[in-house]
Amino acid sequence: MKTVTLKRHLKESLKSLKRNGWMSVAAVSAVTVTLILVGVLLSILLNINKVAHDVENDVQVRVVIDRDATKEQQAQLKAKLQKIDGVQKISFSSKKNELNNVVGTYGKEFQLFKGDDNPLYDIFIVDTNSPAETISVAKKAKKLQYVYDTRYGGASAKKLFKAVAAIQRWGLVISLLLLFVAVFLISNTIRITILSRSNEIAIMRLVGATNSYIRWPFILEGAWTGFLGAILPIVLVDIAYLWLYGIMSSSMASTGYQLLTPGTFLWQIDLLLAAIGIIIGALGSGLSMSRFLKI
């Protein structure tokens, strides 16, 4: 396409947006509502993926040591644990430290169990090379001498990953439905515009204008509609996420997990929303024109 022709098409598309008035506002509003919902869904899905990945990598084996095991026997047990395939790191947590964790989590009333009344056990916390090795390490550790029991977050982690997979599937389905609705609304809006200019288009065809020459201003008009409709969602999603991140980052600090840092992904969401808006706008216009220009 020549530069002169492209400039003309751009001018025509902008004039058409202004000329259509409320119809253009309706189309932009449809894109805006759709992209706000899509932006929120994408932000939620990406953060769920991030937290799920953190949980997966944080799965540990807690090896509960027999109460009667001496310090020397505990050292022997640690040496045997280190020889198990897949073990990356071993740290020790005394029953006093375990009770302090319980008190910090559930309240000061559990301080009654301090000293000789402490019902908890000394524990070796075993980090594995990969989450997939957690179960095998736990099973091997349980067979060792001086081990009372082994515990790991495998069962809860599996439930979490299943829930994440379900949320991802439904989030994708809902996003696609929203985008389809936006394309449909823009398509109908552009179709009404085309019908109102049917005489103009008929004259252009009579004087020899090609279908592509007639089609491009409408496709660009749809792209402008999508771009304008993406501006407000980008601003709202950015502001809302920055506000939510400020609140959640402090409350989640004690868990060891964090949401995605705004600077690492918000600009990607912004670009994606702008691209989606332009694409669905141009697609909606293209569909309307392809039907209208059929001979």
From TrEMBL:
Q: Which domain of life is it from?
A: Bacteria
What is this protein's name? Cell division protein FtsX
Q: What does this protein do?
A: Part of the ABC transporter FtsEX involved in asymmetric cellular division facilitating the initiation of sporulation.
Spans through the membrane: 21-46, 167-187, 223-245, 265-287
Q: How does it sit in the membrane?
A: Multi-pass membrane protein
Q: Where in the cell?
A: Cell membrane
What is the taxonomic lineage of the source species? Bacteria, Bacillati, Bacillota, Bacilli, Lactobacillales
| Homology family | Belongs to the ABC-4 integral membrane protein family. FtsX subfamily.
- GO BP annotations listed: cell division
The alphabetical list of record keywords is: Cell cycle, Cell division, Cell membrane, Membrane, Transmembrane, Transmembrane helix
Q: Where is the ABC3 transporter permease C-terminal domain?
A: 173-294
User: Which organism does this record belong to?
Assistant: Ligilactobacillus animalis
Which stretches make up the FtsX extracellular domain?
Answer: 59-148
CC annotations in GO: plasma membrane
Check the record and name the InterPro entries matching this protein. Answer: ABC3_permease_C (IPR003838), FtsX (IPR004513), FtsX_ECD (IPR040690), FtsX_firmicutes-type (IPR058204)
